[in-house]
Amino acid sequence: MPWSRTQIAERLAREFQDGWIVNLGVGMPTLITDVPLGDREVFFHAENGVIGFGPVAPEGQEDIHLVDASRRYVTLNPGAAIVDHADSFALIRGGRIDVTVLGSYEAAANGDFANWKVKGSKGGVIGGAMDLAASAKNVYLMMEHRTRDGSPRLLATCSLPITARGVVKLVATDLGLFAPTGTAFAVRDLAPGVTLDEVRAATAAPVTE
Amino acid sequence: MARRSKVVADFDAAVAGIQDGSTIAFGGFALPGSPFNLTAALLRQGAKRLVCVGNTTGGPRKPRNPDIGMLVENGQVAKVICSFTAAPRASDVLPFTPYYERGEVDAETVPQGTLAERLRAAGAGIPAFYTPTAVGTELAEGRETRMINGREYLLEYALPCDVALLRCYQADEAGNLRFRRAQRNFGPIMAMASKLVIVEVEEPILPAGAIDPDDVHTPGILVHRLVHIPPAPAAIWPSLKETR
Question: Does the keyword field hold Ligase (chain A) (predicted)?
């Protein structure tokens, strides 16, 4: 059984270490704010300058002035702080973000990834992804293993314009958790019942145990 | 000597005199800090050939609030400089997109942190800087990079603006601004980067000194025009549902 999106979030969150500063991209990665972390404490940083936010606000308790980078009305944990955009990205480029978890169209065995421009698009959807990709200590991707029509998203090299070169440490998909090695994806974990052969069939790059 | 008041009567007075060809910075990230009322006034004012700087041109969501995309539709924009120049979901189309694809509007797609730093640099008298962001990507093709301490960096230039349109929570008559929560975002750096800073203010404008100097996010010396936002329906007060 492949992992659900929630299970992908839970698996990836197991990699977080106590005290980490965590930045979550738009889409699937936002599920991570709901994952229980046990006795580990992490601090969620959002590009729009919100440091130390918590879960999404309950209905009726939203604050019109308080969104995360995915436009969700979030809450603030005790000890939260607000900075402006220059300082928020200074924290990113300054190397203070322990991990960014981003969605992606493609991930490559050489550590590149592509998440800002689709084929045929004149414009782009960069947001903070290039800054985060270039300067976070760890870049994790969270994505479906294949496109809707079944084509692999995990490739030897990206076919779309890349977001950053050689930075991806981990890729979590519905099939498992993988680490780009430069020439292959090394399996770190498989969803229950998923075989190595299934992963190989769904991946356009070598997959190693 | 009497203090010259920065408070103007309404949004139309606030945007009066903005010239054709101006570079205009639009504050805001999602709803918080977005100057919807001043943007609506700029649509009425009609300045043309504008260069519009902001995080996004405005999304495909409905109901729409006044944004850069509406200025594009109104024929007022020559170029946008944004970190989003396409819709986050491939199935969506930004109102701006058809104009861009037909070549009627130019666009520069800039990483968000680079956009912020270009504004900060403009306000800080720094003409250019090197950043690790976008190195090795399509955005860096044909541009100057430099190895510093063993790492490659991309040269980026400051982005000075003629006008900033901002929305904040509180202001005093001296122009000191206090933002609330995620509303701060680009506000302070756009104010720093711009020659004319115009702000729509949510709370009634306070007497000078009512905001403790330690709590000021943008000093009044940078701010030129303030307008208090009247209650709806005379002005735009977006509701929570609009980004749901």
Answer: no
